[in-house]
Every structure is written in structure tokens, then in C-alpha cells.
Amino acid sequence: MSSDPCDGGAVWTRPTDATAEEPAAPRGEAGSAVRRAARPASVHVEGKRRTKRLKILESAVESFARQGFHGTSMDDIADHLSLTRGSLYYYFPDKEEILALCHTVALEAVAELLNEVEAADLPPAEALRRLVAGHVRIMVDKFHGSALALEIDALDPKRRQDVVASRDRFERGLRSVIEHGIASGAFRSVDPKTTAFAIFGAINWIARWYRPSGGATADDIGREFGDLFLNGLGAAARTEP
Fold this sequence. Notes:
Blueprint: E1 2-3, E2 10-11, H1 43-67, H2 74-81, H3 85-91, H4 95-120, H5 124-143, H6 157-184, H7 192-204, H8 206-209, H9 218-232
Antiparallel strand pairs: 1-2
Helix pairs in contact: 1-2, 1-4, 4-5, 4-6, 5-6, 5-9, 6-7
């Protein structure tokens, strides 16, 4: 087995012909075929493989949003993409790895958001607004408003640990913004940790009630949440022009 640079998970070894995208279909329901040694794949092949994995991920998340993570089988995902089981197992040996990649992609976006806000050196109210709006957008766009963000218990211990560590870094960044706002007088005196947990929890809970057909966009929800949290902290809500 080889390590995939996309998410650090185990993937099927590539065939000797580095130009091929998929090997012969693995044997057995679990896809436990004999793996063949391979030359390192070219950058081009790796790029095509990553693109294919992300396409499968997008379709899988849509299936999870409709049927739930536990109610969706690998067959469902393969059928939705018109793939054979063998082809799907080449890219993902199980749906837990799809879930892991989903969290990885979302958490990479969250980390990028936090880095951008920290680098911009914004006033506390604007920094908090951007973190809230950006996090809401990630929840809706990356997870399709599904409950996947709450499905970390379905991950193996190592992957769960990685997800929690990345999530905790964002929570610390959020808490730092709140502490800065209190110290500068922009926010009223509150417990920064409890407040950060409340904001984080409210955004994560979007997974339980959001529906794409509901009419509200990610930007609408982010704006409403931003105003709600900032008003609660004693900061004036932004007035629309």
C-alpha cells in the first residue's frame, strides 16, 4: 500500500503502467486484491488521480447528505458516478476514507481562512465576522450542509485525532479574537472559551437543519450569524447600504 498525498490514507497501489488511471478490479467485497509493485507515478498521473478523488468526494458527500453517512453504501456512491466497484475501490478502499478526506478538505479551508484573518490584522469585530461567515460557507459548501461534520466518531482513532487537533486550532484562533475584542473594549466582558464554544457549536449545528432548498444561501446565514454574535458581544451589527 502507498500513502496518498491528498489525505495521508492508505490507497491501492498503482499498476506498473504509470499512465493507467485504474488497475484491474480488486477481488472480494472488501477489495482485498493482491497488490502489485509499481514505479512512482508521474506528477501528471497524480494530478489526474487527485482530481478523480475530489470528483468522487463531491458525489459521495451529496449521497451522504441525502441518505446519511451510515445509510449510504459504496455501491450507492459507485452507482451515482456510474463507476464499477473495482474503480471506486481503487480510489477509496472504504467510505471511512471518503469521510476522512471530506474532513481534510474542509479543515484545510478552515486553516486557510484563519491564516488570512490573522494576517490581515483586522479590528476584532471585523475579524470575528469574517471567521463566522467563512466557517458557515465551508460548512455549507464543503459538507453540503450535511451532518458529516459531526460524524467524527466514524473515523479511526488516528484520523479522529487529526480532525480534533485541526478543529482545536481554529477554536483557539476564534478565542484569541474574542480576547482581543474584550481587551480593546470592542466586546463586553465574557468568558472567551465559553463564547468560542457557543459560536463554534452554533455553526457546526447548521449540519442538522440546513437544506439547500430552504432559500437561504451560505452568505445569508453567515451574515445573520455574524450580526447575532456581534450583537451578543456588544458590537454593532453592520448596516446594509
